[in-house]
């Protein structure tokens, strides 16, 4: 099993199975080079009818590829998220099929792929009630070729969470009015304490709702960053796999000089012993 543990082998086999499913509708590609450290993974994969190509891609993904950390771009609005990342490599139909599947799984929505001016776009196309929410209908992926590889840009509108702000405003307004009633003596002696308590409760409720909205937006942006990182790894994985395939030495036959002499001796002996034809 080499330096790989059973958990490592299990991870590689599981990931290779997913990769092969992503590529079910893609044309077959040339098998990639193997490594002695992963002989067990290849053997198990063959028993499970997994092509070596996908086993190797899973190995490359397991080892990891160095990528630039995605950047959250300031859009001037807290309700719009924009994440940008870069990766080496090119996009073919098979890789786009995998990228599309990843986006649809992440956003839980089918999407439409289009090409314009050399760029590739994926746009979420949700169905049912989700199409009326900006958070579900706004996700867009743009992949544009650059000199050093591909630029990945994902945008999403987070205005759906702003629908909770009226509750914040209503809570603060109620809290202020109750507190003002106490200050100006409208509560009476018996109503001062209850009004202050209720005012505090509305203030706390407004604070927690506001914090909930902010955390939801931050969490959504973090998820987008994770998606861009995954897309970077996928593109880099393909790029590294193709490079390894190109660097793989072609098989050749090497015969030492003494072996050639031995072969000549054998040919001479055989010719001397061969019967003559009448």
CA-atom Rg in angstroms = 32 Å
**N/C terminus separation:** 62 Å
Mean pLDDT: 77
Elements, N to C (H/E): HHHEEHEEHEEHHH
Our count of helices gives: 8
Tally of DSSP β-strands = 6
Broad structural category? alpha+beta
**What is the count of structural domains?**
3
Shape: elongated
Widest sheet: strand ordering: 1-2-6-5-4-3
CATH topology of the largest domain: Double Stranded RNA Binding Domain
Query: Percent helix among the residues?
Result: 55-70%
Q: Identify the CATH architecture of the largest domain.
A: 2-Layer Sandwich
β-sheet strand percentage: 5-15%
Task: Enumerate the spans where pLDDT stays under 50 for 5 or more consecutive residues.
Answer: 27-34, 248-255, 266-272
What CATH first level of the largest domain would be assigned? Alpha Beta
Q: What does this 3D model show about the protein?
A:
This protein is of the alpha+beta class and 278 residues long. The chain has three domains: 6-63, no CATH class; 71-158 and 224-238, Double Stranded RNA Binding Domain (2-Layer Sandwich); 161-210. 55% of the residues lie in helices and 14% in strands. It has helices spanning 6-22, 39-47, 52-63, 93-107, 134-137, 165-183, 188-247, 257-273; strands at residues 71-72, 80-87, 111-116, 119-124, 140-146, 149-157. Strands 1-2-6-5-4-3 form a six-stranded antiparallel β-sheet. The radius of gyration is 32 Å and the shape is elongated.
């Amino acid at each position: 099993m080499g330096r790989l543990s059973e958990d490592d082998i299990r991870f590689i086999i599981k990931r290779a199975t997913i990769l092969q499913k992503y590529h079910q509708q893609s044309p077959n590609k040339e098998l990639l080079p193997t490594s002695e450290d992963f002989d067990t993974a290849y053997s198990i994969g063959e028993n499970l009818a997994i092509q070596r190509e996908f086993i190797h891609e899973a190995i490359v993904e397991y080892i990891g590829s160095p990528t630039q950390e995605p950047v959250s771009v300031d859009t001037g609005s807290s309700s719009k998220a924009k994440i940008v990342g870069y990766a080496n490599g090119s996009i073919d139909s098979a890789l786009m099929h995998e990228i599309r599947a990843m986006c649809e799984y992440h956003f839980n929505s089918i999407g439409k792929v289009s090409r314009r001016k050399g760029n590739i776009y994926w746009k979420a196309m949700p169905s049912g009630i989700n199409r009326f929410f900006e958070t579900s209908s706004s996700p867009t992926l743009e992949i544009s070729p650059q000199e050093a590889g591909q630029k990945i840009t994902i945008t999403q509108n987070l205005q759906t969470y702003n629908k909770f702000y009226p509750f914040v405003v209503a809570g603060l307004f109620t809290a202020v009015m109750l507190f003002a009633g106490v200050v100006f003596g409208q509560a009476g002696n018996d109503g001062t304490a209850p009004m202050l308590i209720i005012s505090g409760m509305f203030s706390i409720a407004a604070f927690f709702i506001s914090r909930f909205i902010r955390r939801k937006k931050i969490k959504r942006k973090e998820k987008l960053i994770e998606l861009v990182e995954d897309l970077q790894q996928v593109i880099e994985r393909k790029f590294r796999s193709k490079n390894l395939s190109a660097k793989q030495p072609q098989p050749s036959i090497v015969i030492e000089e003494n072996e050639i002499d031995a072969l000549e001796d054998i040919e001479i002996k055989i010719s001397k012993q061969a019967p003559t034809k009448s």
